[in-house]
Write a structure and sequence with these properties.
The structure holds two protein chains of two kinds. Chain A has helices at residues 18-27, 70-86, 90-93, 125-133, 148-161, 178-186, 219-225, 253-264, 281-297, 311-314, 321-335, and strands at 3-12, 15-16, 33-34, 46-47, 97-101, 139-142, 167-174, 210-218, 231-240, 272-274, 306-308, 337-338, 361-362, 367-372, 378-385. By secondary structure, chain A is α/β, with parallel strands linked by helices. The chains are: A alpha/beta, B alpha/beta. Chain B: It comes from Streptomyces calidiresistens.
Chain lengths: 388, 330
């Protein structure tokens, strides 16, 4: 069964909307700002901060109900755009699925400074969205660390492919967390300047805030609704390193296996790959090699595939990253160009993939791969193909 | 393709009368008895519980080497949890705001990620098909079953360890007046070749399917009756008009009303389809073990019945149902 994308939504450091996201990616200039003074850390780490979200409208039936944190509000912003873009009616939403990738959920509710009002139930974001939008089908929260968004999209497609839903809103979101950034700082994993994934002098990741959403549906459902497909999912693969709770397996064998399974669906070499690449040298190298091997296995040459690392200009958005990857892949297919990689002085000589620099590069083949990895070696890859 | 349960395991902190809780209550679980003398010191309680339950379900010793090669790539792990990071996150946040980043110890870092218990189970067993963690409150454990059944049917694994683990938050004032308790549970699912073939030795019954729904509230705060009725029909469809179906609905005390409404909706839908529930006046069972609760109910039912339905509901409006069915029958 073919699964297509019929709606997109995003809120990021570029502001609300996929148009703002695409414009920001093309400009390739954005740098992080210091985290808010109230972040509670002795040195304010760099952060690709999202604008303070404004909840689109009150959720029905929830006056005085469970609190909504920053991640939940960002997600509501992205889902509002995607649902509107897809033209979904209330009746269609009542039977639609909802898959949410998030690492820490509404963690700000647990990181409040007071000792008595901290809220431990941080992972209620899916219920908040389902209640707000009246989404009555299967609603699941996936927390596979930084690949959660990629899994949310993959699982959403699986729900459609197995007949458990015709339409699924797949989304991902994460916001600033003192514990997450403090921990990364503690172990020297934060680049104090900016995220520079393709620069030989990269010095770590920089976190970002945001949420992204895609409306997935069967091609038949889109046809019946008269919705315009923007991209089709050609395949997706999962694997687990089963190696270390925080570090990737050095050979990248399992990641390559998940990419190979995703590419099985296309039967062709992708024109570009939206990488997970976050500026952590060891992880970046494992991913690029693993993707390169999978590309070679379908008859391609890694250097002919445009590698793109959006985290350079929007930071690592954790559970949102994989969904952002899918939104960006769809935009690349729609526009026919790959945005330039940013903040590169000396390109990483060890990367086997092509590295577009300086300006948008033409997409040479009509399919785009998205790669997601996370703590615990949780790998997921999705292959998207142009439609129409 | 249907599936068969080839093993189960659980470690459960039993609720105590008021006044018997407190720091000493943590002694209900002896890690060394389950995990040996070494190797678990730096794991948080949710991870320790999960390893104990997972190893039991797989019938493996804690010190057995992980799988490798093809068998490893065909074994998956799905874990439900809602509070895996709550305690450690609060402790780390306190450290950051008092001592600073230098106070964070390397050993506790992985514990701030919700997937760490499931990932450690995958590492320990060598599960390389996938390791996915589902974090909806209460229903996460049964959602893991639904996920695993879909993954098996999609050919993403040959066997899946379906698990759930939780450590109820201690709160700011200790563990007095607790309504939630610690637990982990696991079952191993594998595809059953075909009706008519015999059940593997030692196996319980099978899982025939699962369904998740969300029942939103209307503007007046009441649960949407149309969504509730639709959920009832979907759940009843899992057993296709069967008669005398054991039906277990569980939820937190605060969601008892919602649980009753779900029970009634399923009973009505099943009756319309020509079937029946064994005990239509049955009570909603209180879910006291967070996201593990539904999985504990499923395991308990599978040990005594070949068929039946277990439903887990949350106060937020999520519900997940899983149906048991004899895999040797068509």
């Amino acid at each position: 069964m073919t699964v297509v994308v019929t709606g997109l939504g995003a809120v990021s450091c570029f502001g609300s909307g996929t148009a703002a996201l695409w414009e920001g990616l093309l400009r390739a200039e954005r740098r992080p700002v210091p985290a808010p003074e109230t972040c509670g850390l002795p040195t304010r780490p760099p952060l690709y901060a999202a604008p303070d979200p404004v909840l689109p409208s009150p959720a029905p039936g929830t006056p005085g109900g469970e609190p909504v944190g920053r991640t939940g509000a960002l997600l509501a912003t992205a889902v509002t755009e995607a649902v509107g873009d897809a033209g979904l009616t209330a009746g269609e939403l009542l039977d639609a699925g909802l898959t949410v990738g998030t690492s820490l959920g509404d963690i700000d509710l647990a990181e409040t400074p007071g000792a008595t009002d901290r809220y431990p139930a941080t992972h209620r974001v899916t219920a908040g969205l389902a209640g707000r939008f009246g989404i009555g089908g299967p609603g699941h929260t996936l927390s596979t660390a930084c690949s959660a968004g990629a899994y949310a999209v993959g699982w959403g497609a699986e729900l459609i492919g197995t007949g458990q839903a015709d339409i699924v809103v797949a989304c991902g979101g994460d916001a600033f967390s003192r514990v997450a950034i403090g921990t990364l700082q503690r172990f020297g994993l934060v680049d104090p300047e900016c995220c520079r994934p393709f620069d030989v002098d990269r010095a770590g990741m920089v976190t970002g805030e945001g949420a992204a959403a895609v409306v997935l549906e069967s091609a038949g459902s889109a046809r019946r609704r008269g919705a315009r497909p923007r991209a089709a999912l050609a395949g997706h693969g999962w694997s687990c390193d089963a190696h270390h709770p925080m570090a990737p397996e050095p050979s990248g064998e399992q990641l390559s296996r998940s990419v190979a399974r995703a590419l099985e669906g296309t039967g062709e070499v992708p024109g570009a790959v939206v990488l997970h690449r976050a500026g952590v040298a060891g992880n970046d190298a494992v991913e690029a090699e693993a993707v390169g091997r999978a590309v070679a296995a379908v008859g391609g040459t890694a250097a002919d595939v445009a590698g793109y690392a959006p985290k350079a200009v929007m930071g690592h958005t954790a559970g949102a990253a994989g969904v952002f990857g899918c939104v960006i892949a769809t935009l690349i297919l729609l526009h026919g160009v790959v945005p330039p990689n940013a903040h590169v002085t000396t390109p990483d000589p060890g990367c086997p993939l092509g590295i577009p620099l300086g300006g948008p590069a033409p997409l040479t083949r009509p399919s785009v791969l998205v790669s997601g990895t996370g703590f615990g070696g949780n790998n997921a890859a999705l292959a998207w193909r142009a439609v129409g | 393709m249907t599936t068969v349960i080839t093993g189960t395991g659980a470690v459960v902190e039993e609720p105590r009368p008021a006044g018997e809780d407190g720091p000493g209550a943590a002694g209900w679980f002896d890690p060394a008895a389950h995990l040996g003398r070494r190797g678990w010191k730096y794991f948080g309680p949710p991870t320790r519980y999960l390893l104990a339950a997972g190893n039991t379900a797989l019938g493996r010793r804690h010190d057995e080497p992980p799988l490798t090669g093809g068998p490893a790539e065909r074994l998956g792990v799905v874990t439900g949890t809602q509070y895996a990071i709550a305690d450690v996150h609060r402790r780390m946040d306190d450290t950051l705001t008092t001592t600073g980043v230098g106070g964070i110890g390397p050993a506790e870092v992985p514990a701030f990620s919700m997937n760490t218990p499931g990932s450690q189970l995958a590492i320990s067993t060598g599960a390389r098909a996938f390791s996915v963690t589902l974090t909806n409150p209460v229903t996460g454990g049964l959602e893991a079953v639904q996920f695993a059944v879909s993954a098996l049917r999609a050919g993403r694994a040959d066997r899946v360890v379906v698990a759930a683990t939780d450590r109820a938050p201690t709160g700011e004032d200790g563990r007095e007046e607790r309504e939630e308790y610690d637990a982990a549970a696991a079952l191993v699912l594998r595809g059953h070749p075909a009706p008519g073939s015999s059940r593997p030795a030692g196996a319980l019954t099978g899982i025939t399917g699962g369904v998740s729904r969300f029942v939103p509230r209307r503007a007046d705060g009441a649960r949407d009756p149309a969504a509730l009725a639709a959920a009832g029909r979907r759940i009843a469809a899992l057993v296709a008009g069967a008669g005398d179906v054991p039906l277990v609905v569980s939820g937190p005390a605060a969601a008892a009303g919602f649980g009753h409404a779900v029970l009634e909706a399923v009973t009505a839908s099943l009756r319309e389809a020509g079937g029946s529930v064994r005990d239509p006046a049955g009570a909603v069972r209180e879910a006291r073990h967070c996201a593990v609760s539904g999985l504990l109910e499923l395991i308990a039912l599978a040990r005594t019945e070949a068929t039946g339905v277990v439903v887990s509901v949350s106060g937020s409006g999520h519900l997940t149902a899983v149906a048991l069915g004899d895999p040797t029958r068509s």
